[in-house]
Specification:
Length: 182
């Protein structure tokens, strides 16, 4: 399946929730905690190729997801996404590790999912800040919804949450290192 999405920074989660409700979006999945586990081989081959292998645990279930590289053909994020539900994420993690992959990154977030007319908006609260991911069937529909929510192309965030959280942690570590040398 082809995923078409883009992220935007959210300054006020309550105000964003209200905007979405005014636009007729309904909550498809209430605020919940997600744990994400990203795997790669020792050489980082998947990351180098722009691919991702993830196990996600939520209160409603566990999934294994493969994401292909992000297309450079669009300003939005276009990438192949293959996902399936799994019964035992811990056992699956062991299998993944036994075939040579390692747990390289893990992060958590709180997510609320809104839906309307084939569009999906996920409001995500992460260590790197709050974001919405707008996903839909076409670039035009995703961009149009972004505009209705007050965003433009200059606001597009193409990075993954793992990248955003990694950058935040690096900045925090650099700040702490700078303070300890003073």
């Amino acid at each position: 399946m082809q995923e078409i999405e883009i992220k935007f920074v959210v300054k006020d989660a309550s105000a964003m929730t209200e905007k979405l409700r005014r636009l007729g979006f309904r909550i498809a999945a209430g605020r919940h905690h997600e744990k994400n586990f990203l795997f790669d081989d020792g050489a980082g081959s998947l990351k180098r190729q722009g691919k991702l292998l993830r196990i996600r645990k939520t209160p409603s279930g566990q999934t294994l997801t493969f994401k292909g590289p992000i297309s450079t053909e669009s300003k939005l994020k276009h990438r192949e996404e293959i996902e399936c539900r799994v019964d035992d994420a811990s056992l699956l993690q062991r299998i993944i590790e036994e075939v040579g992959f390692e747990l390289r990154t893990q992060y958590t977030k709180y997510r609320t999912v809104f839906e309307k007319d084939g569009l999906c908006v996920s409001l995500d609260e992460t260590e790197a800040g709050n974001y919405i991911e707008v996903e839909g069937p076409s670039d035009a529909e995703v961009i149009a919804l972004g505009e209705k929510l007050g965003y433009s192309e200059k606001d597009f965030v193409r990075q993954t949450y793992a990248e955003l959280i990694g950058e935040t942690k690096s900045k925090q570590a650099a700040g702490q290192a700078g303070r300890s040398t003073q």
